[in-house]
Design brief:
By secondary structure, the protein is an alpha/beta fold. The protein has a single domain, classed as LmbE-like (Rossmann fold, 3-Layer(aba) Sandwich), CATH 3.40.50.10320. It contains seven helices and seven strands. A seven-stranded mixed β-sheet has the order 3-2-1-4-5-7-6, with helices on both faces. Helix 1 crosses helix 5, helix 2 runs antiparallel to helix 5 and helix 3 crosses helix 4.
Length: 234
């Protein structure tokens, strides 16, 4: 039987703001369509040059409100030292067993940021670990049917994209969610204030152009995806 904590889609983010940057428009689109979406931030994202733990919590809460999220967890793993350890795997696997998503969104597997790479490995391991029986983990076994990779990458390279989601109607709200993180993208940045937001805008405009839409968010897969009908393809 479903519970209030169970969701259809779970986004695993290395730090608060990664989910917004990579797939904020898709999160908004799913929620406004009545889908149940949750985000699990693995770390607090702190320390950063102009942030504090309290400021980051306020920014995350404000951004979550813009996205429309009613379920967002933080596992409290250590920023800058994130590793796919067994202990961390159990923590994330228990979240998966509790939330029971059908689809797991995790960071793209190629990145310059060690935390992002660790988050990808950790999420892949936790997906498998969550289905184990005869274990002391909380919750009942669960195995998300699909893993989809989103781009929160620090690499400036052409992505290995499988598909892009049209987020044209939701892009303005995505930017409002991203801009909640003032300590990360504006405070103390001088002439570079807002540069990350501009980069995300241009990137999403590019991928929108690839699907004949104004804005798009790209995604990758490693497992074959099935379509109920070709009518779902733009």
């Amino acid at each position: 039987m479903a519970t209030d904590r169970q969701v259809e889609y779970l986004v695993v983010a290395p730090h608060p703001d990664d989910a917004e940057l990579g797939m904020g428009g898709t999160i908004i689109k799913l929620i406004r369509a009545g889908r149940r979406v949750a985000v699990v931030d693995l770390t607090s994202g702190e320390p950063t040059p102009f942030g504090t733990p309290a400021k980051r919590r306020r920014e995350t809460a404000a951004s979550s409100a813009v996205l429309g999220l009613t379920m967002r967890l933080n596992l409290g793993l250590k920023n800058r030292e994130l590793e796919p350890t067994l202990r961390a795997r159990v923590r994330l696997a228990e979240a998966i067993r509790t939330l029971r998503p059908r689809v797991l969104f995790i960071p793209y597997w190629n990145d310059a940021h060690p935390d992002h790479l660790a988050a990808t490995a950790l999420a892949v391991d936790a997906r498998f670990h969550a289905k184990l029986t005869k274990t002391r983990m909380k919750g009942e076994p669960h195995y998300p049917a699909r893993v989809i990779y989103y781009y929160c990458t620090h690499l400036r390279t052409h992505a290995d994209v499988a598909f892009a989601v049209d987020v044209s109607e939701h892009f303005a709200a995505k930017l409002r969610a991203v801009e909640c993180y003032r300590s990360q993208f504006y405070d103390g940045r001088g002439p570079q204030a807002g540069a990350v937001v501009e980069y995300v805008t241009e990137t999403n405009r590019y991928w929108g152009g690839q699907i004949n839409r104004t804005y798009g968010e790209p995604f990758a897969v490693r497992e074959t995806l099935g379509l109920e009908s070709v009518e779902s393809v733009l």
